[in-house]
Amino acid sequence: MKRRDERRWQGLVLWMAALVYLVSGCNRTVAPADRVAELNGEPIAYTDFEEFLVRNSVDGAGVLGSDVLSSLLDQFLDERLLCRLAEDQLGLTEVVDGRAAAAALITQEPEAADPLELSTFYRENRAKFDLPERILIRQLLFTDREMAERTRSRWAAGASYQEIVDNIAPDPNAHAGEEGEFARASLPPAFADALFDLDDGGVSEVMEADYGFHVFQVVRHSPAGLVPLSEVAEEIGAELASLQQQEHLERLVGEARE
To answer: What is the pLDDT of residues 113-129, one digit of tens each?
Structure first.
């Protein structure tokens, strides 16, 4: 659930960064033949649109269908509208950082979701919370098998995870991975069976991979089934807040169009 929430937030950040194309200044002299549009009488250069396509990893306009090109042009013009809106609302005479301007345009804190909103979202998206059996694991990665075996022995003998991490931290041949929850299908087949067979708190044998030697600890098992609302309320609240911010930016685009 945590990984999915991070992906949603990353998606929102990327959307905001793409939506607000404010890195270049809005004012420049453009010959009539080079204009792609005008904004309040201000010409917008076709070269700016080409830069937008490059920024978004889109092939040249010449190979795009008219419907795709039209959609991209609409998005580009929406971004330029927000450029002007940021200047007007924030009193900025020159916008030099798109991400900072985007953040400034959504400075208001999203309203906290009430219990009814949380339960409604939970009910309407029930399938998202009906999960298979999962394990929460910690992992260490080594480039040297001998070091992996020594560390594994200490860990299995009762050393705490923090003790282990502190001990290997100075060594460039060892790395502590992030804690994460995984279903069986999300793990490499060579690891899945062995890890799911471990009890809570169990430490795996050293497992070799192409890129080094793993040692895992299973923190806990979570059975298959519907995750209770109480356990996902915070995640749902964060998603609803992200949706609020996205809707706010979309409203700003609509206002700018007016």
So the answer is: 889 999 999 999 999 99
> What pTM did the predictor assign?
0.55
Do residues 168 and 160 touch, judged by C-beta distance below 8 A? no
Rounded Cα distance, 134 and 154, in Å: 26
- Compute the distance between CA of residue 24 and CA of residue 86 in angstroms, rounded to an integer: 13
Report residue 143 as tokens: 């480039």
C-alpha–C-alpha distance, residues 206 and 164, integer Å? 15
DSSP 8-class letter at 203:
B
pLDDT digits (tens, 9 = 90+) for 82-93: 777 777 766 665
SS3 61: helix
CA end-to-end span of the chain: 40
**The pair of three-digit structure tokens given for residue 45, joined into one six-digit string:** 């250069």
* C-beta separation of 217 from 138 below 8 A: yes
d(CA 131, CA 146) in angstroms, rounded, equals 38
Interaxial angle between packed helices 161-168 and 145-156, expressed in degrees from 0 to 180 and rounded to the nearest 10:
150
Residue type, 190: A
DSSP string of 185-206?
Answer: GGS-HHHHHHHHTSPTT-BPPP
